[in-house]
Amino acid sequence: MIKKNRIKHFFLIITCFEMLWGQNLQEKSKSSYIKSIVFKKQSSEIQFPIVKLNESFQLHFDDLNGDERNFYYRIKYFNHDWTPSNLFKNEYLKGFDNLRIENYQTSFNTLQPYTHYQLELPNENTQFLISGNYLLEIYDESDLLVFSRKFLIYENGAEVKAAVFRTRDLEFYQTHQSVQFSINPLEGEYFRDPQNQLHVSILQNEQWNSAIKNLKPQYTNGIRLEYRYDLETRFEGGNEYLFFDTKDIQITSSNVSFVELKRLYETYLTPNFLRRGYPYSFTQDLNGDFIIRTLQGSEDERIEADYSWVYFSLSAPILLEDQEIFIYGKFNNYQLNEENKMYYNPSLEIYEGVMLLKQGVYNYKYIAKTPDSEIYNAICGSHAMTENRYLIFIYYRYFGNLYDSLIGVGKTSSFEIID
User: Fold this and answer.
1) How many domains would you assign to the chain?
2) Are residues 100 and 205 in the same domain?
């Protein structure tokens, strides 16, 4: 009896650990020499790898060591909440993984040498059998994890109609947005036990760190499921991203004050200011994304785009006490670390930061971090009129399956927000 209880306790601990690990699963970037990670469907401008089953997508990245070393890829499968799946690898993959990335090129005519790697999936060695949540991991020759990225594969199992509304709560009327949507099964189909078998996640501007999950249908209209929430699907509107352009690395351009050539080019951006409290002003942006481009050579950005040290500055009359300031954008996968941290210069009354970035067009903003939390809009402000993209993922566990299929993807924007 005692032995049985110990076994039960053991499996309970393991289960709790897996649930906690899954809910906090984050994409990793462990190597400072890996730069410019682009992971998306080839025909899409948005850098977010969500594709239909059997549709191809690509991973690109640079190794600044430039010595043509070997990298290997592995693929894992997860449940709707990013907890580990119980499936065996041959149940979600056809073929093999843990294979070497064979497509690589050395940079040409750049001050910063690097090796550019490209991986296309699916390929002749690796195909996907089911829809759902996946994780791509890249390992080096020593079998050490270099970085990882999430990707999603969907199938056509439901139709999603969505729109963005102003919140009904007057306290947040000027600063927040609510996403409302409905889900229709395919003609002739219906959802069995949607309260427990169907799961929904909503992402703003393809960012996992602010995702809203675990939504249940508010009510049904025939076979249609309605999600007409306000509070439960409310996001901060944020503000439009700042941007700069280094396609021509040798000259000043949009929001670039001046350029110097030392060992590498050094790009100094126009100083920014605290935008919190200022009226909303529309600016066309990429919603935090970036695009690698160059006007040099034959304009092959994969191997001819160079790197420059980009200097950021944020005007602040006083040190923001108990807050750390970070440069924030897709270029570092929206992560906060020493690489994109800013430091206060009291003599100039500015926060300063510098990052090594490849030529292109970049969106960025500044966010604050306290010992207790990350405050995403404390510096740039939040407005209900800000244009944001939203993705709605519909997961469903079909009767008899041991995994969560991604059966529908809804897309909407706050560009035409409904009052």
Assistant:
1) 3
2) no
The CATH number for 362's domain is 2.60.40
Q: Same domain for 396 and 351? A: no
When the pLDDT of each residue in the chain is averaged and rounded to a whole number, the result is 91
Does residue 408 share a domain with residue 288? no
Q: Is the pLDDT of residue 21 over 80?
A: no
HEC string of the chain? CHHHHHHHHHHHHHHHHHHHHHHCCCCCECCCCEEEEEEECCCCCCCCCEEECCCCEEEEEEECCCCCCCCEEEEEEECCCCCECCCCHHHHEEECCCEECCEEEECCCCCCCCEEEEEEECCCCEEECCCEEEEEEEECCCCCEEEEEEEEEECCCEEEEEEEEECCCHHHCCCEEEEEEEEEECCCCCCCCHHHHEEEEEEECCEEEEEECCCCCCEEECCEEEECCCCCCEEECCCCCEEEECCCCCCCCCCEEEEEECCCEEEEECCEECCCCCCCCCCCCCCCCEEECCCCCCCCHHHHCCEEEEEEEEECCCCCCCCEEEEECHHHCCCCCHHHECEEECCCCEEEEEEEEECEEEEEEEEEECCCCEECCCCCCCCCCCCCEEEEEEEECCCCCCCCEEEEEEEEEHHHCEC
pLDDT band at residue 391 under the 50/70/90 scheme: very high
410 occurs within a structural domain: yes
Q: pLDDT, tens digit, for every residue of 401-415?
A: 999 999 999 999 999
Segment 177-209, tens digit of pLDDT: 999 999 999 987 889 999 999 999 999 999 999
Full domain range(s) for residue 162: 158-237+385-416
